[in-house]
Design goal:
By secondary structure, this protein is an alpha+beta fold. It folds into four domains: 45 residues, no CATH class; 68 residues, no CATH class; 104 residues, OB fold (Dihydrolipoamide Acetyltransferase, E2P); 237 residues, no CATH class. Helices cover 58% and strands 11% of the residues. The chain has 19 helices and five strands. The chain has a five-stranded mixed β-barrel with strand order 1-2-3-5-4. Strand 1 and strand 2 form a beta hairpin. It is globular, with a radius of gyration of 28 Å. The chain starts with a helix and ends with a helix.
């Protein structure tokens, strides 16, 4: 008779990797089955991600990894070395194109080499002098950027001449703080005396590198103005880029002044930030409150604002054209609405300052509108991948910026949740109006809570790392705030912009 109780019961428990269970460990009988289920689930996920047509979203990941590798280097890599590495990886990818697994691996290394080379070439192209020690200098040049802040203003000057004692290098651009209300217009040629300092290095090991951020903005020094700012005649004609910047800043400034004239205080500053992107006038207390409540994304023009503007414009244009039966029957009003939405979105991109999050959402929107024009369906995950590649090609330094990381993390998390068969319920067979309204409202509330929770969890690690903040009440705050912003605030802002040339905009701003 067997003394093994397992054999006596007609069963033998085994280790997940084979062999009889040792009774001394007390291995749970159900755990091997759990491990097998977990292994099969993970295997299914991996096979789904490497299936035909699913490798494209991994290209921006490996491309961004190459850029991150560049920023981890101790010194500036050689341009010729990065280009040669890219050529070698590209050649290997071409040679291995008939072997599926080897080609995928080679393509990943090629994308990483491309990201590394892109960042290296970008740094080489924008190379400029950086101030090494504090000086007091006479500066003259053109104002390219003007920012209004709570206690002072700030301008960026493309330097024509910088004269200072013991200066060994002359920065191409300097950023200086000026007294409140004294900042000259964009495009003006100014002469001033300022105390300049080198760009600020990280305040702690691993902290945010302000010097790196300013370097890729081609700013070689920062400081504050001593005395008055003199406006003078420029020594030459304005460049086309400077003229364009002056026109755009003039439009943003006129809208900002009009809104804040109707609505004073923080309310007007917030309203202006939603449309023009000029949020520097918002007080620190309100900024802190928005961060703590996880509503700071409302102030930063991002994918949410771009999508909302495009949706409102597309709906209004298409619905308006549909009211003309003869016109709607002869012409594709859906495609006409897509074209008009494209121009409005482009204007909104320029008006808002074209930050990274806005660029990402604009590129995704353009792909969707192009799909409408050619009668194709836009794949959301691929759209996000193409947007990421486009942003990283234009500004590879954005991969280490919190705006890029948080924007793409939130969008990717939402796409992952909603593209994996999430069902919030469908209308039942009951066709009564009250049942449909109740079910529709319930689904929308659940979707809003889930979207806020998913986006908040996805961006929380980046917010904690960069800003040392967490927002435990973010879900509740977004649940109450976002429906109001979506259904009332932003549409009123768009109507205010349309009514502004005619003088009937005050109602919409209020």
């Amino acid at each position: 008779m067997s003394l093994d109780p397992d054999k006596a019961r007609g069963r033998v428990a085994s280790w997940p990797l084979g062999g009889r269970r040792a009774a001394v460990w007390g291995w749970p009988v159900g755990l091997p089955r759990f491990a097998q289920n977990l292994q099969s689930t993970l295997t299914g996920w991996v096979l789904a991600d490497v299936a035909p047509g699913r490798l494209l979203p991994w290209l921006p990941v490996t491309f961004g990894a190459g850029i991150a590798l560049y920023f981890s280097a101790e010194r500036q890599p050689s341009t010729w070395a990065s280009v040669i590495l890219l050529l070698v990886c590209t050649t290997l990818s071409v040679l291995l194109r008939r072997r599926a697994m080897a080609f995928a691996i080679a393509l990943a290394f090629t994308a990483s080499a491309a990201g590394f080379a892109t960042a290296t070439l970008r740094a080489a192209i924008i190379a400029h002098p950086v101030l090494q020690s504090p000086v007091v200098a006479n500066v003259s040049g053109w104002v390219e950027v003007r920012e209004e802040r709570e206690r002072s203003d700030r301008i960026v000057i493309r330097a024509h001449r910088v004269d200072g004692a013991r200066m060994t290098e002359t920065p191409d651009r300097v950023r200086v703080a000026v007294r409140k209300g004294t900042a000259p217009d964009v495009g003006a040629f100014v002469e001033l005396r300022a105390r300049l300092s080198p760009p600020v290095t990280p305040l702690r090991p691993g902290g945010y590198d302000f010097a790196r951020d300013q370097y890729f903005q081609r700013i070689g020094a920062s400081g504050f103005v001593l005395g008055k700012i003199k406006t003078a005649d420029p020594p030459g004609e304005h460049t086309l880029r400077l003229r364009f910047a002056a026109v755009v800043d003039g439009i943003r400034e006129s809208i900002d002044k009009r809104i804040r004239a109707v609505i004073p205080g923080n309310e007007g500053s917030i309203a202006s930030a939603l449309l023009t992107g000029k949020r520097d006038a918002i007080t620190q207390n309100v900024n802190d409150a928005m961060y703590v409540s996880s509503l700071a994304h409302v102030l930063s023009i991002s994918g949410y604002h771009m999508a909302l503007v495009a949706t409102v414009v597309f709906f209004i244009v298409r619905a308006g054209l549909a009211l003309l039966p003869t016109f709607a029957s002869r012409y594709p009003i859906k495609k006409l609405a897509a074209v008009i939405t494209f121009f409005v979105a482009t204007f909104y991109l320029i008006l808002s300052g074209a930050e990274v999050a806005t660029q990402r959402s604009y590129i995704m929107l353009i792909i969707v509108l192009l799909a409408v024009l050619v009668d194709r369906t836009a794949l959301t995950l691929r759209t996000l991948a193409i947007a990421a590649l486009a942003v990283l090609l234009l500004s590879p330094e954005s991969v280490v910026h919190p705006s890029f990381q948080m924007s793409f993390a939130a969008t990717l998390a939402l796409i992952a949740v909603y593209s994996n068969g999430l069902a919030l319920g469908r209308p039942s067979a009951d066709n009564s109006l009250s049942a449909r309204i109740a079910l529709w409202g319930g689904r929308e509330v659940v979707a809003l809570i889930l979207a806020s929770l998913v986006a908040g969890l996805a961006t929380m690690p980046y917010a904690a790392y960069h800003f040392h903040r967490a927002a435990p009440y973010g879900v509740i705050a977004n649940l109450f705030a976002m429906p109001v912003v979506s259904a009332w605030v932003m549409p009123m802002g768009l109507f205010g912009l349309l009514a502004m040339p005619f003088g009937f905009d005050a109602f919409f701003w209020r």
